[in-house]
Amino acid sequence: QIFNQHNAEAPNLEPAFHRMAQMEPNLDHDVSWFLLPSYWAKMVVALISFLCFANSYDGDFVFDDSEAIINNKDLRAETPLGDLWYHDFWGSKLSSNTSHKSYRPLTVLTFRINYLFAGGFHPVGFHVINIILHCTISVLMVDVFSILLGGLQFSSKGRRLNLAPKSSLLAALLFAVHPVHTECVAGIVGRADLLCALFFLLSFLGYCKAFKENKEGHTFSVFWVLVSVVLGAIAMLCKEQGITILGLNAVFDALVINKINLLELIRKLLYKDKSLENAGLLRKGLLFRITLLMCGGAGILYIRWRIMGTGPPAFTEVDNPASFADSLFVRAINYNYYYSLNAWLLLCPWWLCFDWSMGCIPLIKSVSDWRIIALAALWFCLIGLICQALCSEDSHKRRILTLGLGFLIIPFLPASNLFFRVGFVVAERVIYLPSIGYCILFTYGFSLLSKQAKKKKILAVAVLGILLINVMRCALRSSQWRSEEQLFRSALSVCPLNAKVHYNVGKNLADKGNQSAAIKYYREAVRLNPKYVHAMNNLGNILKERNELHEAEELLSLAVQIQPDFAAAWMNLGIVQNSLRRFEEAEQSYWTAIKHRKKYPDCYYNLGRLYADLNRHIDALNAWRNATVLKPEHSLAWNNMIILLDNTGNLAQAEAVGREALELIPNDHSLMFSLANVLGKSQKYKESEALFLKAIKANPNAASYHGNLAVLYHRWGNLDLAKKHYEVSLKLDPMAPGTKENYNLLRRKLEQLQKKGG
Question: In terms of one coarse class, where is the protein primarily found (predicted)?
Answer without folding.
Answer: endoplasmic reticulum
